[in-house]
Structure formats: structure tokens, C-alpha cells
Amino acid sequence: MKLQLKVDIPEKLSAIKLEQYQKYLEVLKNVGEDTDSNFTNLKALEIFCGLKLKDSYKIPIGTFEAVLKQLNTCLNEDTPLIKRFWFRGSNGTEVEYGFIPDLHEMSFGEYVDLDTFISDWKNMHKAMLVLYRPIKDKYGERYNIVEYDVVDAEHLRDMPLDAVISSLLFFYRLGIDLSKVMMNYSEQEEEMIIHLQDSLERSGVGIRQFTHSLREI
Questions:
Q1: Where is mean pLDDT largest: 10-24, 92-106, 189-203?
Q2: 140's torsion region: left (phi>0), alpha (psi -120 to 50) or beta?
Q3: How far is residue 112 from each of residues 29, 88, 102, 130, 195, measured CA to CA in Å?
């Protein structure tokens, strides 16, 4: 009798939730250098595919490798800035979120919270609360988002990972290209972008951070 297991393999980065990636980063953070790489691979299947550790040992090696390869493909997916996305939160309600339309209009409070949380993956959902909020008005491709309010950001742990990564890389690339667009920024805006770039480098966005997120077999 063949063993039948249900494995939910994400087809693209948008199918992975921020919370799943946060959990996986905690696993990588807590393992030692001498930890068997198979352990992290098994945890990847558990977190991203919903496969229990005890069941992972039962799947064919070819399937095991194929699933890890697909996960690696997802985590290395190219991520241009995602300005709008729909997602269903844990409360069951589907809402369209939009990236903050005008960075020049960012308030001091928004900037402080963004700078505080954007370098800490454990609190990345709080940074996303600054950058992505429900859309209240739409005019073709243009839109307005609700006012920023320091509320419980737990629901944003469910947001798609591609939106998270795209926004982080957007700021990092903006910092990298700062010399090309310096004339378009005031002195205060320039300092803000440079400071955010430093924060992003502390969070690991300054490298191709997903290349090594799954250990090679």
C-alpha cells in the first residue's frame, strides 16, 4: 500500500506568507554551525509546505529534492515593486492593500516606525503596516490609502512575501541609485533614504538574501 501525503508546494513567492518566512528565519537563527543541513531542509518543508517532520522522512528522495528545488525557485523569484495586492487575513476578510503612494508625504511618525522595524524580521509586519494599508479610494491606477494608525499589525503576518520583499528591495535599490537621483531630493529626504538603506543592510536585504535561505542538498 502506497503512502499518500498532502504536500502544499508554493508555486510562487506570493503563495508564501510573511509569517512563514519569519518562522524559517528563526529556525536558521537558532541552529548551530554543526547542525545537520537535513534538519533545516525538513523544517523548510514543515513551514512552507505544511508537511510534518515525521512524514517528511517517508517521502521519496526524488520528491524531497524536487520540493526543495521549487522552494528555492520561489525564494529567488524576481520581485519588482508590488504596489497593490489582495489578501485574505486571518479574520476571513479579503482586502486590497496599496503601497504608500507618496513617500514625500510620509509623516515623521511613519518614518520613525518604519526605520525602527524594517531591520528586524521578527517585527517586519509592523514595518509593512507603514508601507501597505487598505485602499479607500481608486481613480484608475491611482489610489489613496487609509491614514496610518499604530494598531495591532498581527494580521499583516498573513500578507504575501513577494510584496514584503519587493518593498524592501525598492528602498534598498533607491539607496543604491541615490547618486543618480540626488537632485530630486531635499537634504532631509536624502538623509532619510540613506538611514533606511543602513537599516535594510542590517536586515540582510543588501545581498541576494534568498540564495542561501535553503541549504543545498
A1: 10-24
A2: left
A3: 26, 28, 16, 10, 11
Measured at the CA of 171, the angle between CA 166 and CA 173, to 5 degrees, comes to 90
Query: Cα 115 to chain center, whole Å?
Result: 16
Cα(87)–Cα(96) distance, integer angstroms = 7
Torsion of CA 70, 153, 205, 172, to 10 degrees: 120
Helix axis angle, 61-75 relative to 37-49, nearest 10°?
70
Q: Which three cell numbers stand for residue 14?
A: 506570493
**Residues facing 99 on adjacent strands:** 132
Q: What gap in Å lies between CA 32 and CA 141, rounded to an integer?
A: 48
Q: Please give the mean pLDDT across all residues of the chain.
A: 78
Global confidence as pTM: 0.78
Are the C-beta atoms of residues 215 and 75 closer than 8 Å to each other? no
Cα 103 versus chain centre, distance: 20
Of the candidates 90, 127, 98, the one whose C-alpha atom is nearest the C-alpha of residue 111 is: 127
Q: Evaluate if residue 33 carries a pLDDT over 80.
A: no
d(Cα 56, Cα 209) in Å, to the nearest integer?
26
- Neighbour-count burial of 175, counting CB atoms closer than 10 A to its CB (0-12 exposed, 13-18 middle, 19+ buried): buried
Q: For the residues 92-116, what does the mean pLDDT come to?
A: 87
Q: Which residues pair with 132 in a beta bridge?
A: 99
Please report, rounded to a whole number, the percentage of residues in the chain having pLDDT higher than 70. 74
Half-sphere exposure of 13 toward its Cβ, with a 13 Å CA cutoff? Answer: 17
